[in-house]
Amino acid sequence: MSSNAGIRPEEAAAAPPAPLCPARPDPYLPGSGSTAFAVLHYDLDLEVKLAANRLSGRARLTARVLGPVQRLELDLARLTVSKVLVNGRRPKKVSHRGGKLIVALASPLDAGADVELDIRYEGSPVPVRGLWGEVGWEELDDGVLVAGQPNGAPSWFPCNDRPSDKATYRIAVTTDAGYRAVANGDLVQHTKKSSRETWEYRMDQPMASYLATVQIGRYGLEDLADGRAESATRSRGIVRQHIAVPGPLAADARSSLVRQEHMMETFIDRFGPYPFSQYTVVVTEDELEIPLEAQSLSVLGSNHLSSSWEAQRLIAHELSHQWFGNSLTVASWQDIWLHEGFACYAEWIWSEESGSMPAAARANAAWKRLAALPQDLLVGDPGAELMFDDRVYKRGALALEALRRSVGDAAFYRLLHRWATEHRYGSVDTGMFIAVAEAETSFDVRGLLDAWLFSRGLPALPGR
Ligand SMILES: [Zn+2]
Q1: If you measure from the C-alpha of residue 348 to the centroid of ligand 1, how many angstroms do you get, rounded to a whole number?
Q2: Which of 41, 195, 238, 456 is buried most deeply by CB count within 10 Å?
Q3: Does this model's pTM top 0.90?
Q4: What's the gap in Å between 276 CA and the centre of ligand 1?
C-alpha cells in the first residue's frame, strides 16, 4: 500500500491525490469499493425535489485504472441508472444489482490509464442499512441530511466507496427556492431560476467518499467572526467559519459556538495548519442522536446547542476530525482509533485549554469507567461491529495520554504536529503513526501502544 507521505501540503492541495492500490478490499466492508481503480475527481450535478424526495443526478468521474481491467465496479445503492458513457462512448454492457454498478468496457484498459465515466441516474434515495443502523441520504422533517460514515455514500452518488480512495469534488445541487444546500468546500456559485436555486461547491483537497455530503434545509448563513477584524484571525491561521442554521435557532447556535474560534486556534497550535479553506457547522432543526463530521463541515442537531461541557466537547470533537479523519484518513476501517481516539483526545486538550479540567484528570476518569466495563475488544482492530464502540474512542484517547505521560508534553505535541503535517491529505495506518512517533521521540512507542491497542486487558496509565 502506498501513501501520500512524501507530498508536501501545498503540492497535495494542487495535485490530484496519488492513487492507492490496497492489496485487498477493506476487511470491515468487503463489499464496498474497488481496488481496480482510483477516482481522481467527482463532478456531481444533483437535482433534488424535496417534497417527493426525488433525486436525479449526473456524476462524471475521472478515474485511474490500477491494473489491467475489463470492467469497472462502482458502488451505487437503490437508484436507477439511465445512461452510462465511458470516455464518451457506450460501454459493452452495464448491470446494476446488489449495490454494484458494473460497467463492462468495450475494450480492456491497462494500469495507469485514465478514464472518464459519465453516469445519469435518478430515484428516491434512502439510507443504506447495515451493522451501524441507517447511513447515507436521510430525509429530515424539512430538508435533507447526508451522514455517509462508513458506507452511506452510494445512497446518493456512484462512487468507489473505500476510505483509501480520496478525490477532489465539485458538487452542484439544484433544489427548491427558499432552501440552502450546503456541501463540502467553498461555495463558488449560487444562482436562482424561477422556483429553483442552484448551489455549487468545490472541494479541492482529496476527500474520501464517506466524507462527501449534502445538507439541505431552510438555513440562513451566519458568519461566526462577524464584526471582528478578519486580518487578526487570519494571521493566526483561523479560517472563516460559518453556521448554517434555521432562523429561529440562530441566536442559540451563535452562543453555543462562541468558543469555536478559540478551539480552532488551540488545535492549529497543537496539530498544525487547519487543512481546509473554511469550516461550516450545519445545525438541523431536527434533534440528532449524534453530531457528524464531513470534510470542511460538521452537523449538529438542535439538541446539541448548549454551553455545557457535554455539548462543547462534541463541538471540539467534530472540529478536530478535520485533522484526524478528514485530512488524515484511515486506509482501512480497522484503524478507526486514529480518527476517534484522536478526536476524543482533542476534547481533553480543549478541556485543559478552556480551564474546564486538565486532560490528565479527564483521562483518569475515563480509565476508571473503562476499568468497570468488559475488556473484550482490541482498539487497534475492534471488528466491524464494534468500530464505533465508545471504548474504542476512550481507550484510543487513553493510549495518547499514556504516550504523552511517557514522552513529556513538548515531545508529545511535536509528534502530533509532525503526524498531522507529514501525512496531510493522505491515507494512514497505525504503523505509520508509530513510525512518526518513534522518529520524533526515540521512545519505544510500539511497545507502549501494543498494550493499549492490541491486547484486551486495560493497561495501567503511567503516573502523573
Ligand atoms: Zn468522532
Answers
A1: 13
A2: 238
A3: yes
A4: 18
Nearest to 450 by CA among 427, 425, 433, 428: 433
- Which H or E run includes 234? helix 230-234
- Three cell numbers at 11? 503540492
How far is the centre of ligand 1, averaged over its atoms, from the C-alpha of 321 (Å)? 7
Q: Which CA distances in Å does 453 have to 39, 281, 382, 391, 409?
A: 32, 32, 9, 11, 21
Ligand 1 geometric centre to CA of 387 (Å): 11
C-alpha 210 to ligand 1 mean position (Å): 13
Residue type at 461 in one-letter notation = L
Q: Grid coordinates representing 207?
A: 476527500
pLDDT tens digit sequence for 8-17: 334 344 444 4
Dmax (CA) for the chain in angstroms is 66
Location of C-alpha cell 463541538: 315
Distance in angstroms (rounded) separating the CA atoms of residues 439 and 431: 12
| Residue closest to 324 by CA, chosen among 212, 203, 416, 204 | 416
CA of residue 382 to ligand 1 center, whole Å: 16
Whether the CB-CB separation of 224 and 260 falls below 8 Å is answered with yes
Q: Domains along the chain?
A: 9-130+153-175 (2.60.40.1730), 220-320 (1.10.390.10), 329-453 (1.10.390.10)
Secondary structure of the chain: what % helix, strand, coil (to 5)? 30, 35, 35
**From ligand 1's centre to the CA of 301, what distance in Å?**
15
Rounded (10°) angle between helices 260-271 and 309-320: 50
What are the pLDDT digits (tens) for 42-98? 999 999 999 999 999 999 999 999 999 999 999 999 999 999 999 999 999 999 999
The C-alpha cell at 140 is 429530515
CA–CA distance, 306 with 283 (Å, rounded to integer) = 12
Q: How far does the centroid of ligand 1 lie from the alpha carbon of residue 200, in Å?
A: 27
